[in-house]
């Protein structure tokens, strides 16, 4: 009986491992269209599958839930090249797109400041003043404003509902209008 039990437990373990097989696909460095496949230095680089497979999966973009990876402690990004500089997170939300027809954009500062110091975006990309920034989907799609990261290192711009994420209720519209008035 113990032998049968051991066999059963082994099958259960294998079934669990097979059901958790990572189906994410990453191009190898020699086939990604960025790296020179003839370069002898290529074999010194870590392949994306090896680097990313242990991180929480996402169904879009580079297929990693980066904020979840930080929150789980799977990665600990440096806040700066300066080891003395400490991380300053901001846990506020900005509501935008008060007058559009699509859902309102709720921008979460916390998820961004887990990665980036405020100076990465302010004052070059965005002015730190309510109503001072005219966000434009055209500019974002051209790789400016939010499009500098989204579509490159963060989830792609085809994931509309991740940004346009707040129902267009009267209170949310009022909140967005209030936040977007120039002070």
Any idea what the shape is? Answer: globular
Secondary-structure-derived class: mainly alpha
Q: How many runs of DSSP E, i.e. beta strands?
A: 3
Q: For the record, what CATH class of the domain at 56-183 applies? A: Alpha Beta
Give the N-terminus to C-terminus distance in angstroms: 77 Å
Q: How large is the share of residues in beta strands?
A: 5-15%
- Total helical segments: 7
Q: Percent of residues in helical segments?
A: 25-40%
Oligomer: single chain
**Strand neighbour order, sheet with most strands:** 1-2-3
In CATH, the architecture of the domain at 56-183 is: Alpha-Beta Complex
How would you sum up the major sheet? 3 strands, antiparallel
Q: Remind me, CATH topology of the domain at 56-183?
A: Cytochrome C3
- Gyration radius (Cα, Å) is 22 Å
Secondary-structure element string: HHHEEHHHEH
Uncertain runs are 5-20
Mean pLDDT: 85
State the fourth-level CATH superfamily of the domain at 56-183: Cytochrome C3
Outline the fold blueprint.
Elements: H1 2-19, H2 48-52, H3 66-72, E1 93-96, E2 104-108, H4 109-113, H5 137-141, H6 160-163, E3 164-166, H7 170-179
Antiparallel strand pairs: 1-2, 2-3
What would you say about this model in short?
The protein has seven helices and three strands, in the order H-H-H-E-E-H-H-H-E-H. It has 183 residues and is mainly alpha-helical. It starts with a helix and ends with a helix.
